[in-house]
Design goal:
It is a single chain. This protein is mostly helical. The protein has one domain: Farnesyl Diphosphate Synthase (Orthogonal Bundle), CATH 1.10.600. It is 75% helix and 0% strand. The chain contains 17 helices and no strands. The longest helix is centred in the N-terminal third of the chain and has 24 residues. It starts with 11 loop residues before the first helix and ends in a 9-residue tail after the last helix.
Length: 334
């Protein structure tokens, strides 16, 4: 049985904030960081000179990458809403994502918000792509519509890929590794073999990182009848799979001299080994938070403005969850 439900919103202001935070604005930073890495790779390919020149060119204000960033941010918000609708029962057991699972936002209202966000993102990206505002042209729209499709298939029946072990990992890695990397890359370059090559270790990191996100939810997923990769393999074997994938990503990244992916794999690998040894709820939550931390930290180093945005969203989220639900979130263990 679920624990006692959280309190309903006190007033219209809290009601509005619930509808903003249901999109899980803090959880977007791994995806937005990868998107910005894609943009940096594209600038690097087209720019002349050394790292300093590339760095300053990438950090020169460009409304096109800002627009792509915002579009993907809204897209991810809609996808998170759909995921919470589908996982309402398991979220009650796992005591997370209270907005829909505890009934503060009705399922019908949540669907309406998600549809509205998806419609906005699809219509704007369609216009921009076929007007060739972005260098990638129509390919940008195909990336966005594919992201929407994978986001829906990941959570919604009859597909519900997040309940199909193996497919849940593949969908997550492709949808939120390859596709959002492309959403940054195509702003400044056309799809090419070099992009495919760059994306391979990032997809491996996405595969590895997804495993650890299912470990913390094994109990709730099992009670909901959801067979995630964590439920299917069990805690220990899921850790082992993630460790092997991180190791493969590290080796490949070294061969390809892909510095961001070397850094990301080298951070996540020991954390997952420690998590496998300890095997506790706390260690599962820590490894989940660290799974894509290396890519995010590298994107922060390449784009200092992201640090300011991250800190601002972190503080706002921290205050909101403290006052709204009396919990300490975000943190490594909640």
């Amino acid at each position: 049985m679920p624990q006692e439900l959280t309190r309903p919103p006190k007033n219209i202001f809290e009601n509005i904030l619930d509808r903003i935070f249901v999109t899980r604005i803090f959880m977007h930073y791994p995806f937005s960081g990868i998107l910005m890495l894609g943009y940096f790779y594209a600038v690097q390919e087209s720019a002349q000179g050394g790292f300093r020149e590339i760095f300053f060119r990438a950090n020169t204000f460009n409304w096109k990458i800002l627009l792509s960033y915002l579009l993907f941010y809204l897209l991810m918000g809609a996808t998170y809403i759909v995921n919470q609708i589908a996982d309402k029962k398991s979220d009650q057991v796992n005591r997370k994502n209270y907005f829909i699972s505890d009934g503060h936002i009705s399922v019908s209202c949540a669907y309406f918000e998600a549809i509205l966000l998806y419609a906005l993102v699809l219509s704007v990206s369609f216009y921009l792509s076929f007007k060739e505002v972005f260098a990638g042209g129509a390919a940008y729209f195909y990336v966005i519509i594919s992201s929407v499709a994978f986001g829906l298939m990941y959570s919604v029946k009859p597909f519900r890929l997040n309940a199909k072990p193996g497919l849940d990992m593949a969908a997550n890695a492709f949808g939120y590794g390859f596709l959002n990397l492309a959403a940054g890359y195509l702003v400044n370059a056309r799809m090419s073999y070099s992009f495919i090559k760059i994306s391979v270790p990032i997809v491996l990191i996405g595969l590895a990182g997804f495993g650890s996100t299912t470990i913390a939810d094994i109990e709730g997923d099992r009670q909901d009848g959801k067979i995630s990769i964590g439920v299917f393999l069990g805690e220990k074997n899921t850790y082992i799979l993630s460790i092997l994938l991180y190791a493969a990503a590290l080796v490949l990244s070294v061969i390809m001299k892909n510095i961001p992916c070397i850094f990301a794999s080298a951070i996540a690998l020991p954390a997952h080994i420690i998590g496998m040894i300890k095997r506790s709820k706390k260690s599962a939550l820590v490894t989940m938070r660290i799974s894509n931390a290396g890519l995010v930290l590298f994107s922060f180093a390449l784009f200092p403005v992201l640090v300011a945005a991250f800190i601002a969203v972190f503080i706002v989220t921290k205050i909101y969850y403290s006052k709204r639900f009396s919990i300490d979130y975000p943190s490594l263990t909640t």
